[in-house]
Amino acid sequence: MAHNGKISSIGQVASCAATVLCSAMLSACGGDGDNTVSRVAARVNDTEITIDQVDRQLAQSGMTDEADVKKASKDILNALIEQELLVQEAKRKRLDRNPEVMQSIEEAKRKILSQAYLERVVFTANPPTPVEIQAFYTDHPELFAKRKVYQIHVFSVPKDKVDDGLIAALDGAKTALDTVSILKGLAIDSKVEEVQWLAEQVPMEFLPTLVKMKAGDIASLEKGKQVVFLQLVGALDNPVDEAQARPMIEKYLTNSKNKALLDDKLKQLRRGENITYVGPFADTPPGTAQQAPETTPPQAAVQAHIQKGLEGLK
Predict the structure, then answer these.
(1) H or E element that contains 223
(2) In the predicted model, is pLDDT for residue 131 greater than 50?
């Protein structure tokens, strides 16, 4: 998760408040006459479940209301007790020595450690500046100030059926009925859909073209073995002001910075370490996997813009 100065500071206050409330309530249940505050919330046979374990999960909830914290802390404690009961039973069955289970534990450990390194060492702790956010807003009017909702008819045609004759015929189509008639006249089977796209749901490379299109115009995109013809029905203004866009832009810019930092770090690590591909992977070319940090902004926000809008078409 990306560090965000403003958001994390608020989250830290809420987490701290919840932790203090939970600790106070659970500690109040400690032993009589003991001046040392116990950090044990419960015992399952010889295993202790600590207040710190409850605090950790409670902090992730963001709760601050005392009544909510009190109920949640008890629910969390009971969930931890039940988890421990299952863990102890699994150990009695020696499942912790099962090769598949051991491999899963090791994989989870590797993931946790690598993500912890990214979050604490690699990723930026500095949120985008107001100037950067404003510049992104200004540079992308099609996503914000001049954002539109596009109504589109989508025609999926096998790539081997697309030729100059079809393209020339479609130039004369002004409505979806015209397009359907042309395809039928050429004995071309096609799948037709009507979709509604927000600007951020449009494939990145296609948006500049779509912005310039008029009702009835047709453009095309390749999708696997299909050519997708998109005929614009109409577009309605649906602007987003800078105040509304700011959280989306901040998340997007933070993610972009983190992705660049991750790429640089992986290249640096690959140069500095001895990596040998062996066996069936001996001919694998050196390179980095296309992995992104786990700080992706919401798909409905700007990040959706770098995804392919066509992936949703069946």
Answers:
(1) strand 218-223
(2) yes
Local confidence band at 7 (pLDDT 50, 70, 90 cut-offs): very low
Backbone angles phi, psi at 195, to 5 degrees: -125, 160
CA dist., res. 89 & res. 76, Å (int): 20
DSSP assigned state of 127: P
DSSP letter at 95?
G
- Mean predicted confidence (pLDDT) in 242-267: 93
Degrees to nearest 5, angle at CA 189 with 185 and 193: 105
Question: Is the pTM for the entire model greater than 0.70?
Answer: no
Phi, psi dihedrals of residue 191, rounded to the nearest 5°: -105, 130
Residue with tokens 């039940």: 82
**What ranges do the domains of the chain cover?**
5-97, 99-147+240-266+288-314, 148-237
Quick one: tokens of 84?
């421990």
What are 221's strand-pairing partners?
228
Q: What is the pLDDT of residue 205?
A: 81
Residue 133's φ and ψ, nearest 5 degrees, are: -65, -45
For residue 107, how far is the Cα from the chain centroid? 21
Q: What angle do CA 227, 233, 238 make, to 5 degrees?
A: 110
Name the class of domain 148-237: alpha beta
